[in-house]
Specification:
By secondary structure, the protein is α+β, with helices and mostly antiparallel strands. The chain is built from eleven helices and 14 strands. It is globular and about 60 Å long. Bound molecules: alpha-D-galactopyranose.
Length: 380
């Protein structure tokens, strides 16, 4: 339905034929805030995302309609610069092609999304992926999916100024149906783990508290980790969190502020947990994944301090609900979704009761979304 609406809008606005792509959002099973700390992460592309209808056009003018915002932007392909709003992400992607010496083609596009903005499902990476895929396709630049992901990350660092890791853009480009993309964030190598949860399923609960990473909290966490790492490096000679032990962290404790020590403790623990989660997934030990998810949540809440009362409430509720193995806030934090590992037969009751209880506690309508691990950005 959404796709048909976008196609209709394309032909009403521009006329003629169009091609269509889908650029997905992502979940992350485990490994939060460690993609910029040399950890492994376990995301997957999902079936919610951005659909874009597009066609090349003569001249140098790019026209993009964001159907969700009822907003059209016109861009001079030879004169790219930062602007406010959603188009800043698109402009930053275009600028990255320019920086790589690739001639930006003119095109027309209508896009729309079933991914709630600010839900922590990485609508920004989906937007970057949609634009970069189309430009790559139309220009014949021939960049690989991995190169496009890195281009998207560079774009997010540049105009929007969010110093994100590589997880979201890699999941968006390299996602595979029914699989987790395991990313080694140190080497940027990836492999795929089957997402087989037996009698359990993943349920997203969107708190309806919008998360925005541009607030500076995200970049601040990154700086705090770097500060801790500088001390660890001075003491141990190690240049990465990848191999830091708890003993080594304790050795520098006196040199760190309590806040920086907590951030580093979380990072060291989360790197360990993500290894355990990957092993558990491969072994079919689903309860173990649930235990790790809860641990991650309370680490994010108490040590990394990126949770909110609303997210803690949802996780507490899940902890008390029979049939839930694990739950945690997912993504950057400060709003967005919790990811819940729930017995299939209990999923409907869990969702209904969680949403009702949440409404009673906060007066906010939460929403639940099913999770299907999907392929990365692609022509459809
Ligand atoms: C955001 C960033 C990612 C990652 C997560 C936290 O989604 O874009 O790179 O750091 O937060 O895991």
């Amino acid at each position: 339905m959404l796709l048909q609406k976008l196609k209709n809008q394309f032909s009403a606005e521009f006329g003629g034929e169009c091609s269509v792509i889908f650029s997905p959002g992502r979940i992350n099973l485990l490994g939060e805030h460690i993609d910029y700390n040399d950890g492994y992460v376990l995301p997957a592309a999902i079936s919610l995302g951005i659909y874009a209808c597009f066609a090349p056009v003569e001249g140098r003018t790019i026209e993009i309609i964001a159907s969700d915002f009822n907003n059209k932007v016109t861009i001079d392909a030879d004169n790219i610069g930062p602007e406010k709003g959603w188009q800043n992400y698109a402009l930053s992607v275009l600028n990255q092609f320019k920086k790589r010496g690739i001639q930006i083609p003119a095109f027309r596009m209508v896009m729309g999304s079933d991914l709630p903005i600010g839900s922590g499902l990485s609508s920004s990476a989906a937007l970057e992926g949609a634009i970069s895929f189309v430009v790559n396709h139309l220009s014949g630049a021939g960049l690989s999916a991995k190169e496009l992901a890195l281009l998207g990350q560079a774009a997010e660092h540049d105009y929007p100024g969010v110093k994100c890791g590589i997880m979201d853009q890699f999941a968006n480009m390299l996602g595979k149906e029914n699989h987790i993309v395991r990313i080694d964030c140190m080497t940027q190598e990836t492999d795929y783990l089957p997402l087989e949860l037996n009698d359990y399923e993943l349920v997203l609960v969107y708190s309806n508290v919008q998360h925005a990473l541009t607030g500076g909290e995200y970049n601040q966490r990154r700086e705090q980790c770097n500060e801790g790492l500088a001390h660890l490096k001075a003491k141990t000679g190690k240049t990465s969190f990848r191999n830091i032990t708890h003993e080594e962290l304790d050795e520098v404790k006196a040199d760190l502020t309590p806040v920086v020590f907590d951030r580093c403790t979380y990072v060291v623990e989360e790197i360990e947990r993500t290894h355990l989660a990957a092993d558990a997934l491969l072994a079919g030990d689903i309860p173990e994944i649930g235990i790790l998810m809860f641990q991650t949540h309370w680490g994010l809440s108490n040590l990394y301090q990126v949770s909110l009362p609303e997210l803690d409430w949802l996780v507490n509720f899940a902890e008390d609900f029979e049939g839930v193995l694990g739950a945690r806030l997912m993504g950057g934090g400060f709003g967005g979704c919790t990811l819940n590992l729930v017995a299939k037969e209990k999923a409907a009751a869990f969702t209904t009761e969680a949403l009702e209880g949440y409404k009673a506690a906060f007066g906010i309508e939460a929403k639940a979304y099913p999770v299907l691990a999907s392929d990365g950005t692609r022509l459809i």
